[in-house]
Amino acid sequence: MKFAVAEHDIESGAEGHQPVMLEEVLEFLAPCAGGRYLDATFGGGGHSGAILLTPETEVVAMDWDPEAAPRADRLKRDFRDRFLFLDANFSDLGQAVDGPLNGILFDLGVSSFHLDTPERGFSHRFAGRTDMRMDPRRGHPAVRFLEQASRSELVNAIRDLGEEPAWRPIVKSIIQARGSGLLGDTLSLSRLVVDAARGPRRSRHRSHPASRAFQGIRIAINREIQNLERALPVAFAKLVRGGVLVAISFHSLEDRVVKRFLRRMAGQPEHRRDNRAQQDRRKEGIILTKRPLRPRLSEIERNIRSRSARLRAIRKGAEVAQ
Question: N or C end of the chain: smaller count of CB under 10 Å?
């Protein structure tokens, strides 16, 4: 079944926001009358709004960014009791969301709202306080992490989570800059990272030289990988038989977590070192994407930030051969 969504509907009232791979999401979720769906990452509400265009559907949406709640007001007005917004992180969906669900969407990473708001501190392009918290009501800003973290914690953030080849000089520069005030402003932090990465063994960046380091710091302070690993099995358990889980990731670490989870649910080896016997595996679903889907060229031209998106999907129970 093809889903055609008008451009006005895609925007869903959130200025500047374009939901990534919307047509593909609707193809996999195939919203139907009476169906109940979870948008675990509400953002600008584009995906939620598109699902609700199918009559008699219900959507439960979650987001731990306090600025997302006002954006949900339009959907509350338009769809009333068919739409429920929860001010919560998807790692808490076990307690926050009741099943059963016909479909679940995880649209991971940061949104345009985060990147285009300098005071949130996510972007290396704008001057702002180095914060980077998805929920600024909790935890500590990134600048505190940079000033106080141990060297091993910085290495984990820059090398492992940021996948930055030039991690050594960057970590060294961060430690040397402590107490100088340079770490508290995103532009000065960006310049520090760029200067370090341009050393004798500088990495060849396809994007901005500071983007990987900023990514790693953001993932570390928000515990994004741990939250995803916790949420996926809980979400899958809430699906009805035949229900579909869709996940859109924007970097290899997220995609690896999603890929391994889907393979585990499909009774397949999670990775090359997974040598468990077949009788030790449980086949609970069918993977719908042999390889991750990427955005169409037309979408990338319309929304350059979609270029790194990777979509994977799994159907629970239905067609599972025992």
Answer: C
What pLDDT, in 10s, does the model give residues 243-299?
A: 999 999 999 999 999 999 999 999 887 677 766 667 667 889 999 999 999 999 999
Q: What is the pTM of this model?
A: 0.88
Rounded Cα distance between 122 and 128, Å, is 9
Please, which residues have CB within 8 angstroms of residue 195's CB and are 6 or more apart in sequence? Answer: 173
Judge whether 18 and 11 are in contact, CB under 8 Å. yes
Look-up: residue for tokens 């009476």? Answer: 34
Q: Is 59 helix (H, G, I), strand (E, B) or coil?
A: strand
d(CA 25, CA 309): 12
* Chain segment 100-159, per-residue pLDDT in tens: 999 999 999 776 666 666 667 677 777 789 999 999 999 999 999 999 999 999 999 999
* Residue 188 · residue 182 · CB < 8 Å: yes
Closest CA to 298 of 23, 8, 17, 49: 23
Q: What are phi and psi of 117, to 5 degrees?
A: -115, 100
